[in-house]
Every structure is written in structure tokens, then in C-alpha cells.
Amino acid sequence: MKFFVSTGEVSGDLHLSYLVKAIHQENKDIKFYGVAGEHSKAQGVEIIQDITELAIMGFTEIIKKYSFLKKKANEYIEFIKKEKIDKVILVDYGGFNLKFLELLKKEVPEVEVFYYIPPKLWIWGKGRIKKLVKADHIMVIFPWEVDFYKKEGVKVVYFGNPFVDKYSVVERTGDKILLLPGSRKQEIKTLFPIMLELIEKRENEKFLLKLSSREHLKWIEKDLTIYKNLEIEIENKTLAQCVKECKTAIAASGTVTLELALLGIPVVVIYKTGFINAFIARHILKLGFVSLPNLTLNREVYPELLQERCNVQEIEKYLEHFEKCKEKVARDIAEVREKLSGNNIIKSYGEFLIKGEQ
Predict the structure, then answer these.
(1) In terms of C-beta density within 10 A (0-12 exposed, 13-18 middle, 19 or more buried), how is residue 192 classed?
(2) Which side of the chain, N or C, has fewer Cβ within a 10 Å radius?
């Protein structure tokens, strides 16, 4: 059996790698090819296109890369035909994968397509459902998505959230503040200066900056060696090991906020984007909460400091709140894990990919 895979960002690559590992534990002869990154490559995916060239966030960035992605989509279709691929797994990355799905069903309709972690249509609106249902199977990882699609008459598969299998609550013994400014250039260039302002203001606090790549240091203009209260971690410690050393975290909105919740640490969620993206998000998208822990419980677990509120004064206010309300914050964080739990979650998704509907 041959699978073609398509994802576009680090978070999708991580989720894909879990599936590939689970499938290979059942059947080592299954082959995987496609668009992925280092996590999936480590599990045996033959990379046709590395995702480092594809990282896109926001509306304006997508427009700029449209012609490049259109060309790539046609290349992938030719590969699928040539290699006689049996099944395709699309993971997240809706800006590209929904278009790719349409092309797949037009050019190779016999190939079985699984959309794992579909676009957040409960945020973007229902307009794209017509495109999504072209997939043979839709596999979601949040319970509220099941209800959302059920109301639209769309059947989806849900076994729980894979991160529950991967992350256990960590006993925190340190007193540092963990800083996670994101993985994209525009995130780091926008958010880290705010974090740096906090480092400068709180000289007696210890900070731990975790970056996912040494390349990201190029996007930070200041010489960080002058800050005696700042430690930089890139490749030596896992996220869980970093959390163990910290009392709280400040993180860019994204998948990492859910990982942090499952590790059991309080987080101030921050985000700031360009004017055009912010305007469109506010006036077109149906945004209530943006962080996954808050969406999971449909209430505030983590404070979300977005746009104008993304500043040092607001961050400090919530750091103090965490200190005053430790027990309530801990209860809320534990409830997130409970809501997303299931049995053998990743294995179940892997088996479904091999066997399909039973």
C-alpha cells in the first residue's frame, strides 16, 4: 500500500509523524511519500517537498505564494499518477490542501482521500464545507468539531486528541518564565520584542526562551548575550523539560498552547498580526476565542492578549493573576485534558487510515 501525504507546517508535520509511526507499527511495508518535514521524515516518509519552503500565515502571505503552490499541486498529481498511489492523507494546511483536494478528485478520482485535521471551518465559516466534503473521510481531533459537522449533515471520525497520548502533566520544580514566540519569521519579529521588554523590566525574574531552530536567532536583532536573566534553549531540551523548569509561560497563539495545557502549565497567550490580516480577521472570521484550550472548554482558561492588548502591562497583570489564583487555574487546565481524552487515540486513527470504514 502506498500513501501520499500533504501538510505545510511544523504542527501538521508532527501530527502526521504520529500517524506514520502508528501505521508502521501495524505494517512496516506501507510506503509514505509527499509533502512533510523532519518529524515525518524521521518516521520513514520519503520527502518530495520539504515544508520549510511552504510556511504561510495570514491572507496576504497566501496570495503572494499562490502561483508557486499551484505549480506544486500539479507536480504532486503527476507523482501520484506515476507511483500509483492508493491513498492520500491531507493534514491541516487548508489554504493549500482544499485546492489540492479539488484537483485530486478531478485528476485521480479513484484515489481514497483522508482529510485529517480539516480547516477550522467553525472559525472561517461554513462556505468551504462544499470543498471539504469531496474527501472520502474527514478525521477531526476536537469534540466540538463533531457537533459542528453533525449540524451540517457531515459525518466525521473522532477518537480524541492525539496530544493527550503524547503529553503528560509535568511536575514543575523551577521558577523561570518560559517564552515561546512562535516558529514563523513574522511571529518572532513581532512578538519577541514585547517579550524582551518584559525581560528588561523584570531583571530579578529568570526567563527561558525556547526556539525550534537556530535559524530563528537571525530574526532577533538584539544581542541576547547581554541579558543575564535570559537562557536560550534550541536543541537540547524538549518542551516538557523546559516546562519542568518554569512556573508559567508566555506563548504565541498556536498549537503549542494546547501542548502546554496538557503539560499542566499556566500560559499567557499573545498574538499580533499585520493591519490587513487583523482587519479581515475581525470583520470576516467568526472569532471568539483563538487558543485551543479556551476553544476546548468554550471559556477562558488562558488569557488571550491580541493586537492592542499584546503589551507588557497586560502580560504582567495576568502573571500576577496566575500567582493569586493557582488552584483555580490548575483545575481549568486539568479540565482541558479530561475533555480531549480517549482510548489509544493515535493507534485508532492509524488503524482507520489502513482499514477505512468497517
Answers:
(1) buried
(2) C
